[in-house]
Write a structure and sequence with these properties.
By secondary structure, the protein is an alpha+beta fold. It folds into two domains: 30 residues; 132 residues. It has two helices and nine strands, in the order H-E-E-E-H-E-E-E-E-E-E. The strands form two sheets. A five-stranded mixed β-sheet has the order 4-1-7-8-9. It has a four-stranded antiparallel β-sheet with strand order 3-2-5-6. The longest helix has 31 residues. The radius of gyration is 22 Å and the shape is globular.
């Protein structure tokens, strides 16, 4: 009799833990599941004449990748390419400068238009003057019947524009 009561309590305990795990995992699965992707910008393309002072890539409230203006130095960064195994980003905060006139710009971009799986793709950021565009670059080559999207340097791959202001 004691064994059946113990077994009953163990089963109840396992069931309670399972329910608690199920209740909490649904809300955080998208933020906690990691995938391999690249975050990149290159302001040498297309004579953009800009530099990135700082950026912060977020997944929900979690910082996925961050560079502060102290880390980028006084002149900022002209290019960066980081391959990472991180959660899918949901927001990008970025500050950049137009080097031709010294003006500084800031934007906070909702990345909700990204597909749920961006594995082995590149999130490409293109700051240009006061404007900024974001593209998702596939590893797949672009067939001739699909028109190119984005900067000419990206033209050989399938590219989807995610954001432009």
């Amino acid at each position: 009799m004691k064994q059946s009561k113990l077994a009953h309590w163990v089963l109840l305990w396992i069931a309670a833990l399972s329910l608690a795990a199920a209740a909490t995992s649904g809300a955080t699965f998208a933020e906690s599941s990691k995938m391999p992707y690249t975050f990149e910008f290159n302001t040498f393309y297309d004579n953009q004449n800009t530099s990135v002072a700082s950026y912060e890539l977020l997944s929900g409230n979690t910082v996925v990748l961050k560079k502060t203006s102290a880390e980028t130095g006084g002149d900022g960064l002209r290019s960066e390419s980081i391959f990472q195994w991180k959660p899918r980003p949901t927001m990008l905060s970025i500050e950049w400068s137009d080097l031709s006139n010294g003006k500084k710009y800031k934007d906070k971009i909702d990345l909700g238009a990204l597909p749920s799986d961006i594995s082995m793709q590149t999130l490409f950021v293109e700051p240009k003057g006061a404007h900024i565009s974001i593209y998702l670059i596939s590893r797949d080559l672009r067939p001739d019947n699909i028109p190119p999207v984005g900067p000419p340097e990206l033209g050989m791959h399938i590219v989807k524009q995610i954001y432009s202001n």
